[in-house]
Each structure stands twice: as structure tokens, then as C-alpha cells.
Design a protein that fits this description.
The chain folds into two domains: about 150 residues, 3-Layer(aba) Sandwich (Rossmann fold), CATH 3.40.50; about 180 residues, 3-Layer(aba) Sandwich (Rossmann fold). The chain contains 17 helices and 13 strands. The strands form four sheets. A five-stranded mixed beta sheet has the order 9-7-11-12-13, with helices on both faces. Keywords: Receptor, Signal.
Length: about 400
């Protein structure tokens, strides 16, 4: 009996060990399976992230901000209508590709460019306008209604939107935006802005082509200008006749171009702010060597009663009209005391070069006016026509530069 009990005990112990071993093996298998599943999950997550990263795009704008999207943008809002000056460079046949709305400034600021663009790009007539971001008449709700992947705004928009609170609202709503600049500091930011837009619209090659040409032309002018001892003091008369005498700029837009062209922008010393007004009396006291007025096709918008006209320049302006309106500016009280017009150093340039990637053409013309012998080989008119052939959806026509020949007209 005792022997049977011993045998039975041994069998029970063996069974217990076997059951325990099986249980441990099962637990180990479960652990291994769980760990394997976790590894597989992490691997899939890593793969998904890698796949997502492949589609992600990151942009760096002129403010030094970086903006990352999950994929290349398909719906873009141009905060400034004049942004089409640049998008035309990228694709002159389809300058509004991926654009779902644009600012309302183009038709008022550059009416003859706008008219030609509307004729060349009929679909532009149906493109919704959003207003002006810098003036506070654009709402987040309006922007969201277009379901944009990205908003392109100018440096002026950015500064204004910071002040009026629009940026905070856009950030809170998750609206992505990048900043371009052709107006505040064109020499620093033109190629950066074109390159940025090339990335946004997937036209990097075209952007590089333009930037290479721009850099070659600008560097050529700057190199020659840097070697000149004579730096004629030059007054930029901004929107002459449209604005009271005499609006000008300080170390920005066309003022920068004057300095780069071998002149000395008078506004740099007369103003403490980026832009402002100088009285005729102050101008007479300073007696600039040259005066460059900016002009456009603003007749329909001008409602001031004074006799002084604006300088008429643009796509529908002939040489005679440009010349006559430039001479008309001399009716400004006190201008008969200025020596620059009497010395045939009184000029006008199309105003919109101040906010355009084609600013290099104005730079060339400034250099040719201020230093005719040193820049006698430059041909800004030819460059303007070639730029239109390559980068604008319509041909160049009209008058964009004019010189008043007071001596010849005396």
C-alpha cells in the first residue's frame, strides 16, 4: 500500500511539473506574441510616418519662418492680387493654377496691367477677391470658406495683420501662410520670394531660371555703380500728382534701387520712417541733382481739384501723353525753382516696378538716367519686352519710362 502511494505521489508530481511547464511555455509564447505585435505596430507607425514625410513639404519665407504642410498645396490664396506678377513668371500660360482667391488690389493699383491680364487669362474674371489683408477688411471666416492649404501674403500684409489681429486669428484657426516681399526690400527679397513661390507651386526650375537672370542683371549694375565716384542726389517722387507734394521713400523699394544704380536716395536722409512726405520748400532747399517721379494710369481714380496731373504711364499710354503729363507735374508750386528739371534731370517711371519681381528693369533705367555714359550699353526697354515674351501672358506695349527735355522744349 505504501508503495502504491509513493508511485501515485510521483505520478501526481510529474503531472504537476508537466502542467507547470506547459503553462510557462504558453505564457512565454503569449509574451513573445505581444512583444512581436508591439514591434510590428511600431514598425508600421514608422513606415506610415516615413510615407507621410515623403509627401510633407516645408517652406521658409522672407521673415525666416518655416511652415510645414502634410503635402504640396493644391489650394492657394494670393493675399495680394499683384502676386500674379510672380506667378506668371512660373507659368505664363496658367498663372492662376492652384489659386482659389486673390486680393483686390490689382485692378486699382495697376489697371492697365489688370485689363491686359483679364483679356489674356479669361478665367481670372471668375476668381473671387478677398479684399486687402493689411487694411483689416479680410476675415478668417472668409479665408476658411475657400478651404486653403496655404495663404501667400506680402511683408506689408504680415505687418498690418500683426497690428490688426488677423495673424492671431489665422494662427488660432490653423490657417497656414507664408510671406513674400517685392516692395520693402527688393534687392534682398526678390529672389527669395520667387524661389519660395516656385516651391509653393512646384515650379522650382522656372523660378531658378528667372532668379539667375535677375541676379546677373542686378549684379552687373551694382558692380559698375560701386566703382563710380559721382553719386547724384536723387529724389523719388512717389505717385507724383496723385499724392500731395511730395511723397517719397527711405531705404526701401525704389529708393534702394536708386542707391544700387549709383545715386544717392534723398529720402534716406530726409525721412525717419519708411515713407513720408517732403514739402516743396524742403525740396527746393535740398536741390536734388535728379528727380524721378512714379506714374500710372490713375486718371479715373483722381478726384482732387488741383491743376497738377499725375504722371501717366502704363500699357495704354503713348510717348506723347507720358511726356505731356510729366511736364504737367512742373506746375507744382515751387518747382520752377528746382534745378533738376532745368538740367533735363526730371524723369518718370511706371509706379508698379516698386512691387514687382521685374524691378531690375527700373534699376537699369535709373542707372542709365543717372550715369548715361557708364551704362550706355543697357537697354531697359528691350529687357522689358523680352521679360514679357518669357514671363508675362501678354506682350509689352505702352510707355514705362519718360524723360522731360525742358531745354529742348524751351
Amino acid at each position: 500500500m505504501t508503495t502504491k502511494r509513493v508511485i501515485l505521489g510521483s505520478l501526481l508530481a510529474a503531472s504537476a511539473l508537466a502542467i507547470s511547464a506547459c503553462s510557462n511555455a504558453a505564457n512565454d509564447a503569449d509574451t513573445i506574441a505581444t512583444e512581436a505585435s508591439a514591434v510590428a505596430t511600431k514598425a508600421q507607425e514608422a513606415k506610415d510616418k516615413a510615407d507621410a514625410d515623403k509627401g510633407a513639404v516645408t517652406f521658409t519665407d522672407v521673415k525666416g519662418r518655416t511652415v510645414t504642410l502634410d503635402k504640396a498645396p493644391e489650394r492657394v490664396i494670393l493675399g495680394e492680387g499683384r502676386g500674379v506678377f510672380a506667378t506668371s513668371i512660373l507659368d505664363k500660360d496658367h498663372p492662376l493654377d492652384k489659386v482659389v482667391a486673390w486680393g483686390s488690389d490689382l485692378k486699382n493699383a495697376a489697371p492697365t496691367w489688370y485689363a491686359n491680364f483679364m483679356e489674356a487669362v479669361p478665367e481670372a474674371k471668375d476668381l473671387p477677391e478677398i479684399g486687402n489683408m493689411a487694411k483689416g477688411d479680410v476675415t478668417v471666416e472668409n479665408l476658411l470658406s475657400f478651404n486653403p492649404d496655404l495663404v501667400v501674403m506680402t511683408a506689408d500684409h504680415y505687418d498690418g495683420a500683426q497690428t490688426n489681429g488677423l495673424l492671431d486669428k489665422m494662427d488660432a484657426a490653423g490657417i497656414n501662410y507664408v510671406v513674400t516681399d517685392f516692395r520693402q526690400h527688393p534687392l534682398e527679397n526678390t529672389t527669395k520670394s520667387v524661389a519660395l513661390l516656385g516651391e509653393v507651386f512646384g515650379k522650382q526650375d522656372k523660378a531658378k531660371q528667372f532668379n539667375d537672370e535677375w541676379t546677373t542683371k542686378v549684379d552687373a549694375v551694382k558692380k559698375t555703380a560701386e566703382g563710380l565716384d559721382d553719386k547724384p542726389s536723387t529724389f523719388i517722387w512717389r505717385a507724383a500728382g496723385l499724392k500731395d507734394c511730395c511723397s517719397t521713400v527711405n531705404k526701401s523699394n525704389l529708393g534702394e534701387l536708386v542707391d544700387a544704380a549709383g545715386g544717392k536716395n534723398l529720402g534716406d536722409t530726409l525721412l525717419d520712417t519708411e515713407s513720408g512726405d517732403v514739402t516743396a520748400e524742403k525740396l527746393i532747399a535740398e536741390q536734388p541733382d535728379a528727380i524721378i517721379a512714379t506714374g500710372g494710369s490713375w486718371a479715373a481714380k483722381k478726384d482732387k481739384p488741383e491743376a497738377v496731373p499725375h504722371a501717366n504711364l502704363g500699357y495704354d499710354t503713348d510717348e506723347a501723353t507720358a511726356q505731356a503729363t510729366l511736364q504737367g507735374l512742373l506746375a507744382t508750386p515751387g518747382f520752377d525753382e528746382l534745378k533738376a528739371p532745368k538740367d533735363d534731370e526730371f524723369f518718370a517711371v511706371w509706379h508698379q516696378f516698386y512691387d514687382s519681381p521685374f524691378n531690375y528693369i527700373a534699376l537699369e533705367q535709373f542707372a542709365k538716367w543717372l550715369h548715361p555714359e557708364d551704362f550706355k550699353d543697357l537697354d531697359p526697354q528691350k529687357d522689358l519686352e523680352q521679360a514679357h515674351e518669357k514671363y508675362v501672358p501678354f506682350k509689352a506695349k505702352g510707355t514705362f519710362f519718360v524723360k522731360d527735355n525742358v531745354k529742348d522744349n524751351a
